[in-house]
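Standup notes
- DV: blocked on the single-chain target, sequence here:
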Amino acid sequence: MTTTATTAAPAGTGTTFSAARTLATAARVLRQLRHDPRSIALMLLVPCVMLLLLRYVFDASPRTFDGIGASLLGIFPLITMFLVTSIATLRERTSGTLERLLAMPLGKADLIAGYALAFGTLAVIQSALATGLALWALGLDVIGSPWLLLLVALLDALLGTALGLFVSAFAASEFQAVQFMPAVIFPQLLLCGLFTARGNMHPVLEQISNVLPMSYAVDGMNEVLRHTDVTADFIRDVLIVAACALLVLALGAATLRRRTT
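- DV (later): unblocked, structure below
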């Protein structure tokens, strides 16, 4: 008499990517966020409030707002999505929710894709609200299509989501997650070309800025600001931002851990 032994797949290592598991994860995250009005307000309203304040800071100089408003339309969503995503994901880990999920037949790719889909849905709403406010309520003057402006804003928000998912793997507390902001976001903010043209920087800083995704987010916004048609530089900027978001999401799946120690 012979017996056949079966080996169960390790928890959290689904053999194939499952759209059903990804959608279920996204739906669960959205249900949880629905009961967290502060996070929703931070994601959806804060970028709009910051743009509103900026518009009236430069009330006597509308052209100044036109010059930097488009760039900040991409930067504000990136920052807020980074903060909310990193803290929310870390909360899942420290509460034990992530460990329970990975004990199920749920692959890391399913989990990361589900989180990205949930926060990406909010990123779409956030980008639409901020873009609509800037263009039709605050009078942001752009030469290119508003839809291109919305596209870049959305990609920036998705990049912020990906960065937040990635850095949450290295934080042991929500305070530590916030501490990553000076290390991950502030250097990009200083070197992205918002305050001065990147060509005017020290050559070393210019070279560093050339590998930072926020630089291409700002460049993409400026292309829409100055050109009526889609330019080759705009296509390059959009593809780089999208590729960086996908790369960081892949790194987030690779570094995903069950428990924060």
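- Follow-up: Residues 62-94 form the longest helix (33 residues).
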